[in-house]
Design brief:
This protein is an all-alpha fold and 41 residues long.
């Protein structure tokens, strides 16, 4: 039971980390507004 619980928690944690990473990558450029974005717009 302990091993199964640990594996399930690890998989869920990795999934949440992946989602959080994607959100950060998408949010940071729009928040900082790099010079490249301003030039294209």
């Amino acid at each position: 039971m302990d091993t199964f619980t640990l594996d399930a928690f690890a998989i869920e944690f990795i999934g949440l980390m992946m989602v959080a990473l994607c959100l950060v990558v998408l949010a940071v450029p729009s928040g900082r507004r790099p010079p490249k974005h301003i030039r294209y717009e």
